Amino acid sequence: MRLSSFLAPLALLASAQLANAANCGGNFDTFINNMKGEAISRGHAPATVDAFFASARQDPAVIKADRAQGVFQKNFVDFSRSVISQNRMQNGAANAQRFGAVFDRIEATYGISRGVLLAFWALETDYGQVQGTFNTRNALVTLAHDCRRPELFQPQVFAAISLFERGDFDPDTTQGAWAGEIGMVQMLPEDILVNGVDGDGDGHVTLKTSAPDALMSGAKVLSSLGWRAGEPWLQEITVPQNLDWTKTGLNHQMSVSQWQAAGVQARGGSLGNGGLPASVLLPMGRHGPAFLAYPNFRVYFEWNQSFVYVTTAAYFATRLSGAPVYDAGTPDAGLGPQQMVALQQKLQARGHDVGGVDGILGEKTREAVQAEQARLGLPADAWPTSALLSAL
User: Fold this and answer.
1) Which residues form the signal peptide (predicted)?
2) In the chain, pLDDT over 90 holds for what percent of residues?
3) What's the pTM?
4) Whether the Cβ atoms of residue 110 and residue 215 lie closer than 8 Å to each other
5) Does residue 221 contact residue 195 with C-beta atoms inside 8 Å?
6) For residues 91 and 122, what is the distance between their CA atoms, to the nearest angstrom?
7) How far, CA to CA in Å, does 305 sit from each of 7, 9, 73, 74, 89?
8) Phi, psi of 353 (to 5 degrees)
9) Closest to 275 in 3D by CA, of 262, 294, 250
10) pLDDT digits (tens, 9 = 90+) for 336-363
11) Cβ atoms within 10 Å of 18's Cβ, excluding its own
12) Cys staple from 184: which of 214, 256, 307, 376, with CB 3.0 to 4.6 Å?
């Protein structure tokens, strides 16, 4: 599962604010000529620019992949069980040992647990085995020309030219995901420029073939996004059935000591520092798995914006760090795709921002569900059921 499945921005947060360098759409050759002119005006040598764009072409498969993305219907239990395999656990342990010195450097430099990076590495590219077969230059120019999000992708083309200049990008042979991410942890060119780390000391940042480069770079990205060194990110808990459900969810926080006073306990071991702020996360409602989400959990949403992907990645990181398999509990039956669309339409009609009527139970839809559950006197655990749909 690559980041391109959801096109979650890493350093795109800054790129998205840049003005378009060239008008999107229209004749592709004209567009490329405009991009060349802009690249030269930014200080790139004309010969370098010509070499970079020499065989650039549109890739219809990229547009097809872009239009097909975004419909993510699996719930947390189904998705996590489908992607966290015994093979990935075993390979994670093997890679933790093989690159132990690299992970020691990451923990000393950035305060990020090896489990966190291992989980991303596994979910993004199966530890580097599945990095994508799209020509990266063509993917980027295709999406830069397309008028859906040119402000996101045009800056990535110029970043790729900079990588080409320093010998870290071959426009004809570099391959990756359909949305232009490269390497073992799937980073966009601008991220590589800003956060790329030469982890193996060879003078280049090579994310496709060098695990030390990829892991150190991924750690620097997380650190730049606000990772709090040495702190936990997610922990499985048990919750009392008389908990005030209106206080659960990522939109509510209390200190760990306050949650303890409310009856929340660690399923194994002890909870984090009592003064840390945390949220009780119930991915499938009060009868399903339960977690305490610490501040570092929110950093995951800067890497990827899918609630289920983020929760799975964070949980996977705890597994790779020694945590047991979660207690799945007996969640109430959820809604099917068409029911979810109907629910979102009803919530939207009541004035809630659900983040778009897409059939996906994201964080905004969860918040709206919780508000309506509270209004209707239902347990406000943010897990939509047919009872809620009927009541609306």
Assistant:
1) 1-21
2) 87
3) 0.90
4) no
5) yes
6) 9
7) 8, 8, 14, 15, 24
8) -90, 110
9) 294
10) 989 999 999 999 999 999 988 888 898 9
11) 12
12) 214
Report the interhelical angle of 150-165 vs 46-53 (nearest 10°).
110
Please provide the average confidence, as pLDDT, over all residues in the chain.
92
* Span 228-264, pLDDT tens digits: 999 999 999 999 999 999 999 999 999 999 999 999 9
* CATH class of this structure's domain 3-69+131-224: mainly alpha
The C-alpha atoms of residue 292 and residue 281 are separated, in whole angstroms, by: 6
d(C-alpha 155, C-alpha 27), whole Å: 20
Decide which of 3.30.930.10, 3.40.47.10, 1.10.530.10, 3.90.226.10 is the CATH code for 234-320: 1.10.530.10
DSSP-derived letter for residue 278 is E
Radius of gyration of the chain measured on its C-alpha atoms: 22
User: Closest by alpha carbon to 118, among 81, 92, 94?
Assistant: 92
Dihedrals φ, ψ of 264, to 5°? Answer: -75, 135
Q: What are phi and psi of 198, to 5 degrees?
A: -80, 85
Instruction: Look up residue 91 and give its amino acid.
Output: N
Residue type at 125 in one-letter notation: T
Supply 294's token pair.
């610490």
Q: Which amino acid is at 172?
A: D
Helix (H) or strand (E) holding 176: strand 175-176
Task: In the chain, count H helices and then E strands.
Answer: 18, 7
* Helix/strand/coil (H/E/C) assignment for every residue in 281-345: ECCCCCCCCCEEECHHHHHHHHHCCCHHHHHHHHHHHHHHCCCCCCCCCCCCCCCCHHHHHHHHH
Predicted confidence at residue 69, as pLDDT, reads 56
Band (pLDDT 50/70/90 cuts) for residue 12 is very low
Contacts of 366 (CB under 8 A, 6+ apart): 249, 307, 382
Kindly state the DSSP code that residue 247 receives in the 8-state scheme.
G
Compare 16 and 308 and report the one with higher pLDDT: 308
Angle at 213 (CA atoms; ends 49, 202), nearest 5 degrees: 75
Q: Is 287 exposed, middle or buried (0-12, 13-18, 19+ CB in 10 A)?
A: middle
Q: Determine contact, residues 291/281, Cβ cutoff 8 Å.
A: yes
Q: How many CB atoms lie within 10 A of CB 342?
A: 16
H-helix or E-strand containing 83?
helix 76-83
